[in-house]
Amino acid sequence: SMSQSSQYPLIQSKPDYHSILSRQRPMIHTMATIIDTQCKIVRQLLSIKEQSQLFVKETSGRLAEEAGFQDLSSDLL
């Protein structure tokens, strides 16, 4: 029978995973919120980086043009 099985004590002593997960839910939710926020920040930083690179490229090209280096402006970047 089941009670004679050597696995029975192990099965009886197994943690209550449902209650463990229920207790962890608020912390998991908080971590998910933090990770979502970090993802948004990284996306904003990448956008700022791209805008900065574009600005530098346009400014470099304009300065090169004003200085009379039209032929070199495309090779600078």
Describe the structure.
The chain has a domain at 28-77. It has three helices and no strands. With 77 residues, it is mainly alpha-helical. The radius of gyration is 30 Å and the shape is rod-shaped.
Pick out its properties.
single chain; 77 residues; mainly alpha; 3 helices; 0% strand; rod-shaped
List the helices and strands and how they pair.
Layout: H1 8-13, H2 17-66, H3 70-73
DSSP summary: helix tally = 3
Gyration radius, in Å: 30 Å
Structural class: mainly alpha
Distance between the termini: 79 Å
H and E string:
HHH
Q: Sketch the major β-sheet.
A: none
Uncertain segments = none
Helicity level: over 70%
Strand-residue proportion = under 5%
What does the average pLDDT come to?
87
Number of E-state strands: 0
Name the overall outline: rod-shaped
Organism: Nothobranchius kadleci
Protein name: DSN1, MIND kinetochore complex component, homolog
What would a concise description of this structure say?
This is DSN1, MIND kinetochore complex component, homolog. With 77 residues, the chain is mainly alpha-helical.
